[in-house]
Amino acid sequence: MRITVVTIFPDMFKFITEFGIVKRAIDSGILDFEVVNLRDYTTDKHRTTDDYQYGGGPGMVMKIEPFYRLYDEIRQKGREPFVILPTPRGEIFNDKMAQELSKREDIVFFCGRYEGIDERITKIVDSEISIGDYVLSCGELAAMVIIDATLRFVPGVLGNEKSVESESITSGLIDHPVYTRPYEFRGMKVPDVLLSGDHEKVEMYRLKESLKLTILKRPDLFMKKELGEKEKRALIQLVKELMKDAG
Question: Which pLDDT score, from 0 to 100, does residue 165 have?
């Protein structure tokens, strides 16, 4: 897999290439990761990447020419990348999109700043993606989130693909609560079922907790979830327990 990030602040990506999942993917030879300084594709002595808006208005707009020069160079090398523009107006990013992106062989991110990039950039963009209904100071942060989530689905990056499939959200449910030592802290105890050694009881407990948390905290996810037989049985048990506790 190849990922190219186009930015005016390449140093921002040093952290993710030195730690965590991106470093692991690079070190294992699965990922070819490149950070390109957009200023290298300017032609003036000041290496200008932004200018005033036509029609007036606050804030600067990133110029179109450097992006196109880079894109033309990429295409001339025979590459046909999938170009992503992180932007608040894009489609909301989710696990399904991450899985789809993980199957791409060549991805390029155009990271915008200020008031955004000249609208003509959309002619060479394949997908506009938002990581949420809020505005960030730069597209670099959104690109990092998308890259991290996507790499988790690339075979071989995490080493255990089954763990990815069973994770929260990927499974369609919020993950169950987790605990570690000590057993008791300030009067708060770890649920005894987790210490029982009975794997079936532990599995059922965790599934019920996942269902309960999803219903309470992310009902939107629960409404989309197609429950399997085991999940249906867990839900029935959960309802019975709640009714018993209520009365």
Answer: 60
